[in-house]
């Protein structure tokens, strides 16, 4: 009897479901009025609290560039009713105003292509624009090495100062991460040598430095994305500063690989908590996010107690190209407090003792003797100091600090033993021995180093950007 009742019940349930589906289908066709309890498709509505010009931007981009619209529609900006105009609207006289965008308001094939909706807009949103809602983050960022990295490389990089690579090699390589000085061509369009570019040290037409979309890519501007190590790995990779490879080798990276899909990536800014939202840190966790009593920052120069990317390792406030406005002891205490959210004090202090000793050995055993030998060769006239990279010993010296030396120091700092030793100090030894042996041979024989007379593409502009250095060459 029970089985028969259950069977009848299933038949009735099936009829009800079928009837419900039929009603829904009819409602979808507009033949039956929707009841209060019937499911409705949720649509994205843009009519509320927006100007007609803002609505026009969204509707037009929804049609012309649907991927941009979709990205924005899924962003926190959209949830907060922040539209295209809130970031891109400009004054008529501003240098970043797009002339070609005005042509959109002369179209007859779309509803929004009329003068009624015309608004001056800038193609790129800059930190100055972002500061209207994020003033603290932009102020912190402006003090960082990220925002000022273009100035830094012009002060120290022989590729630029000696013109040893072409302008296009720089545009497609160096400047893509470090940033370009944005310029407009004769027709008012952005110069392709400077745009597109989202480098962290980009100099914008409104005078601001940097690009927030380096880490929070448009038009989602996701906090989650910037918290993941892959965001930093766009630029911090390769033979000279392989932080992403170092991180992935470390225990931190191993835990991220295993458990990263369980992390709570979308916590509100300032609330992302170790041990609660994530098990092991990412780059952002250590260098930017808050924890304990340490506040969140967008100045990645904070919390550093050594400049491990410099030729000679120095304290950040003693880095001459861009002295940090910090005290290394204070910043070390901040970073150690971040570490001690997960590690004991002895573990943390001993790690820093290891880092300090590695820095000392790099400075004293490898860099200083090699630099003294390089200077001696220049003084003896055995190396030509008018250009850099056109003699092998110059390249060997450069790679000793810029490649192997950085990997040794950064590998130690981020606990990646293979990079500290095999890619680092092991390679330092070979580079150092070969450099010193060839240098001593030149001194013993008085023979000048071979010079690459036909160095390829050594035609880059050596004029320092006036916007950074004034009119002094």
TrEMBL record:
Signal peptide (from-to): 1-25
Domain Cytochrome c-552/4 residue range list: 130-200
Assigned keywords, A-Z: Signal
Keyword hit for Signal: yes
InterPro entries, A to Z: Cyt_c-552/4, Multihaem_cyt_sf, Multiheme_Cytochr_ET
Name by which UniProt lists this protein: Cytochrome c-552/4 domain-containing protein
Organism: Desulfohalobium retbaense (strain ATCC 49708 / DSM 5692 / JCM 16813 / HR100)
């Amino acid at each position: 009897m029970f089985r028969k009742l259950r069977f009848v019940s299933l038949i009735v349930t099936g009829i009800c479901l079928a009837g419900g589906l039929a009603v829904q289908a009819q409602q979808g066709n507009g033949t039956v009025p929707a009841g209060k309890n019937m499911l409705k498709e949720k649509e994205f509505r843009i009519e509320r609290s927006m100007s007609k010009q803002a609505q026009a931007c969204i509707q037009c981009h929804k049609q012309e560039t649907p991927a941009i619209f979709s990205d924005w529609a899924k962003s926190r900006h959209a949830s907060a009713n922040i539209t295209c105009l809130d970031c891109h609207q400009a004054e008529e006289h501003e240098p970043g105003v797009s002339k070609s965008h005005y042509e959109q308001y002369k179209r007859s094939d779309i509803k929004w292509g009329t003068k009624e909706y015309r608004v001056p807009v800038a193609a790129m949103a800059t930190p100055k624009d972002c500061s209207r809602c994020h003033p603290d983050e932009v102020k912190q960022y402006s003090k960082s090495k990220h925002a000022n990295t273009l100035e830094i490389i012009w002060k120290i990089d022989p590729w630029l100062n000696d013109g040893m690579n072409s302008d296009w090699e720089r545009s497609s390589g160096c400047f893509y991460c470090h940033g370009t000085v944005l310029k407009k061509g004769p027709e008012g369009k952005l110069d392709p040598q400077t745009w597109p570019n989202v480098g962290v040290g980009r100099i914008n037409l409104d005078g601001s430095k940097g690009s927030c979309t380096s880490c929070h890519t448009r038009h989602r501007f996701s906090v989650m994305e910037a918290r993941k190590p892959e965001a930093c790995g766009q630029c911090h990779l390769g033979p000279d500063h392989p932080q992403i490879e170092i991180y992935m080798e470390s225990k931190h990276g191993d835990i991220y690989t295993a458990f990263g899909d369980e992390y709570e990536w979308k916590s509100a800014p300032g609330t992302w908590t170790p041990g609660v939202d994530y098990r092991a840190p990412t780059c952002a966790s250590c260098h930017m996010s808050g924890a304990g009593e340490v506040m969140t920052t967008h100045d990645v120069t904070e919390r550093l107690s050594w400049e491990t990317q410099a030729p000679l390792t120095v304290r950040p406030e003693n880095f001459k190209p861009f002295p940090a406005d910090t005290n290394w002891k204070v910043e070390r205490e901040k970073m150690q407090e971040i570490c001690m959210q997960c590690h004991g004090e002895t573990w943390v202090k001993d790690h820093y003792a290891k880092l300090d000793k590695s820095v000392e050995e790099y400075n004293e055993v490898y860099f200083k003797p090699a630099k003294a030998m390089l200077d001696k060769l220049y003084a003896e006239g055995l190396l030509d100091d008018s250009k850099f990279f056109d003699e092998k010993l110059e390249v060997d010296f450069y790679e000793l600090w810029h490649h192997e030396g950085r990997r040794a120091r950064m590998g130690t700092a981020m606990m990646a033993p293979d990079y500290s030793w095999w890619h680092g100090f092991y390679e330092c030894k070979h580079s150092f021995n070969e450099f010193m042996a060839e240098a001593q041979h030149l001194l013993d024989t008085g023979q000048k180093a071979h010079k690459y007379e036909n160095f390829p593409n050594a035609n880059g502009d050596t004029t320092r950007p006036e916007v950074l250095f004034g009119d002094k060459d």
